[in-house]
């Protein structure tokens, strides 16, 4: 076997490439798989590549494994390769491997194209509740994961400014306060806690009040009049103020956006006609002249979504009005750049300093937005069927590649203490209240510890706990939001991982104060204890890849826990006499600096991984 002099942080990927190259030298091309060996088997990593080569070359797998062991070029950090029957196993050199992990380049290749992630899309008539919290956190984390993996990402937020819910809140405002609502709002606001004293909360209360009003049916003409004004764009400024209020909640969660797309702009842009024109030439679309669909424009879904009781989907009704699904199809076509139509302008500066843009009839055309190579729509699983139709419609329009790259990140709904939430009935729990409670509970847990900025630590710990509670399960699982579980600061939670990161940081700080530097590390003195820890750190690239492939951040959340558990296990490890044997500061010279280098890398790994989830690490806990 030969040794490479190239240092890489992703040793498994390097081994995969090395095995594939050795296979080509034997006369066959394969897709090798490299995995950690089971605890009861020899070696650290292994591959069953010999089975694939045996099939292609018509030779004995054990003999091929032996040939691979002799010819494979091993990356730095791998001591030797050994054929174990038909398997090829690799044995790591602890010092060289840890050095490769610590010093290896963690560069990420820039991927071509653009990924558009649309999330949030809260009706602009009330405050965000915990059901929306899951949407925002999932979408924001997915955007972060794709960016970390080298993708260019555009985050969109859809604003339904012409819908009935927005109309009802605005109608209620003027109906209950006909002599001017501003004074009423100010009077209400001064009596509210800080987290609630905003326009979205006030209009949300009026929305509930209207829907509980026994005279609501009599008020229908007035509500329809407001809807007509919204469609005409006459109340845009008022909806914008509502959206700005809602965005304060999103910003507090750490979520930011690139573009707001407004329903009224989409309707006025001619998107619908452009999309229907693209579909008209398809043999799957038609204008029936008889039967129950006479006069409508319909699409046959039987080939794309098998098993439907009625595969005929109405896109445009016989009276000329479009269905909601038709509008969703048009928007998806635009996201992929199948046509242009919107104008854009700056909307507001976000906390990071980045500008948030919005579609607007008074804006300017731009090719900077949309034109995606992949689209991820974050919508709860009750919208799974419409999203399947949106995906299929791209194939109907012969945009097959775009159809394959159209994803619905479906997630289970959120219950409130076992009860389904309803904004109309007022059965909700606002995200702002949850944020305030989370920070208060975090501060209480921190107790009387002497912290430089207890409020800032509580903010990071509280928000981290909330985000993690929404991300640690597979998205399709329903969440029953319960205070004690969601805000737990121990167990499988963000604070557990945050504390591990802070612990690592403190070790680095103490070493720095003592004048120590990892530059003087003697990696040859490291043991299997450090090797096991470095192997967990080295998994980061494959975790990121898995999260992108599965379109889910839950694998990243589990990895953050794995990192914290591995580090805590190493930190607390004791020798046979019960004495801690991994104390960095008490280690012999050379080993001390090598362990310090690994702790520095572990701290960076925890901060980076939690960052993919949108979770900050406080400087102290």
CATH class identity of the largest domain? Alpha Beta
**Can you tell me the CATH topology of the largest domain?**
Rossmann fold
The parts where pLDDT drops under 50 for at least 5 residues are 2-8
* Rg for CA atoms: 29 Å
Helix percentage range: 40-55%
CATH superfamily of the largest domain: HUPs
Q: How many extended strands? A: 20
Characterise the protein shown here.
The protein is an alpha/beta fold and 621 residues long. The strands form 5 sheets. The chain has an 8-stranded mixed sheet, with helices on both faces. A 4-stranded antiparallel sheet has the order 2-3-6-5. Helix 20 runs antiparallel to helix 22. It starts with a strand and ends in a 9-residue tail after the last helix.
Q: Could you list some keywords that capture this structure?
A:
protein biosynthesis; cytoplasm; 47% helix; alpha/beta; ATP binding; aminoacyl-trna synthetase; Rossmann fold; eight-stranded mixed beta sheet; 621 residues; 3 domains; Gyrase A, domain 2; globular; disordered N terminus
Compact description:
It contains 23 helices and 20 strands.
Helix and strand arrangement:
Blueprint: E1 2-3, H1 11-26, E2 35-36, E3 45-47, H2 49-57, H3 61-71, E4 73-74, E5 78-84, E6 87-92, H4 94-103, E7 114-118, H5 130-148, E8 152-159, H6 164-176, H7 182-189, H8 199-211, H9 220-231, H10 236-253, E9 259-262, H11 263-268, H12 271-280, E10 285-286, E11 297-300, E12 312-316, H13 324-335, E13 343-349, E14 355-359, E15 364-365, E16 374-380, H14 384-396, H15 400-404, E17 406-411, E18 414-416, E19 419-420, H16 431-446, H17 454-471, E20 479-481, H18 483-486, H19 494-513, H20 528-537, H21 540-550, H22 554-571, H23 591-612
Parallel strand pairs: 1-4, 7-8, 7-16, 8-9, 9-14, 16-17, 18-20
Antiparallel strand pairs: 2-3, 3-6, 5-6, 10-11, 11-12, 13-14, 13-15, 18-19
Helix pairs in contact: 2-3, 4-20, 4-23, 6-8, 6-9, 12-13, 13-14, 16-17, 19-22, 19-23, 20-22, 21-22, 22-23
